[in-house]
Amino acid sequence: MSLANGRAYLAIPGPSVMPDAVLQAMHRPSPNIYEGELHDLTYSLFPDLKSIAGTAHNVAIYIGNGHAAWEAALANVLNRGDTVLVLATGRFCVGWGEMANGLGVNVQTIDYGDKDPVDLDQLAETLRADTDHKIKAVLTVHVDTSTSVKNDVPGMRRVLDEVEHPALLMVDCIASFGCDRFEMDAWGVDVMVTACQKGLMTPAGISFVYFNEKANAARGDCVTGYWDWRPRINPEVYYMNFYGTAPTHHLYGLRAALDMILAEGIEAVWARHATLAQAVWAAFDVWSVPGGIGLNIADPDHRSHAVTSCFSESPDGDRLRNWCEHQAGLTLGIGLGRTPADAYFRIGHMGHVNAHMIMGVLGTIDAGLMALDIPHGDGALSAAATVIAKATRGGA
Ligand SMILES: *Cc1c(COP(=O)(O)O)cnc(C)c1O
Predict the structure, then answer these.
(1) What is the Cα–Cα distance from 396 to 388, expressed in whole angstroms?
(2) Distance between CA atoms of residues 247 and 225, nearest Å
(3) Which residues of the chain have pLDDT under 50?
(4) Residues 116 and 70: beta-carbon distance below 8 Å
């Protein structure tokens, strides 16, 4: 038998669950792209995008996924032959570095493995050794979606300042944006990239590059007309916002998503993600026994609030994912970039997620562990419920 029929739940780390309000906002005929409502709507997005990123600087929108934002960010600030320092804490920063390499940029990598955050002392040592400042930019991910590690971005700024290194600090917030606290200006970030299909709850297709004046002044020779961020932030005519036809329906969807975030308040959005992540971790603290499943990142301060990467004994990761999908209608994420792949799985808890959805995910995993005879401790749901109850005690 199967108990999968009913509303399916995609709990992978992006694309995330789309709110009905976003989908409904997109369900409309094409608007006029030359004047009227679409223009007003578009220009309403920029201040809100900046406010939730904690910046007074610039944001350019690209029609494309996160990879497009990666390339746009690199191309605008780097010259062929420049060097970037990649802080590898999983698959994603490595991928950003490979893209830099494809643009003709030299890549120096510090590999922190797949269970640990960036070590700031080691970063300081590497930057100090770069006495003639060959390194033009430090590339890092705030949250690496493959390992679910969260890096200390303000700590990186402190290190750059302490060793008086002028490199740009460039941060990938594609997984973390709208989930984990991020404050671009207060944290001294020069360039930030993100995309719409994770914490921003909008179908994949538009991405964002934030940059300050220091980054704008860097002006690399890798950039070509389409990727140039300057006309996009200062368009003489409307089409230059996107260098062509606007992503009309995505803009309506994004407007609805931003309205939801602003109505809740970004601090409350971050607090919701923090509590739901703690509920997930509490369940794992109980489940975790030898031969069973566990959390990839040991230190809670370095765990993402958007995604949780988990290990098992091979091939139980695959068995559990398949059981959840086919028996219960819950799709978990694959163990991206890990070997053996069938030992790993990930839980997305980003964006449009609430307490009952997370309890549903955890309850489903609990049933799967029982049904598959995967060793685990009993009482995980109660531990998770306790976290949720404590955080909301006294609430109406
Ligand atoms: C999802 C993700 C990407 C890639 O985004 P795409 O939209 O798939 O191109 C890059 N970096 C991080 C940290 C991500 O989570």
Answers:
(1) 14
(2) 18
(3) none
(4) no
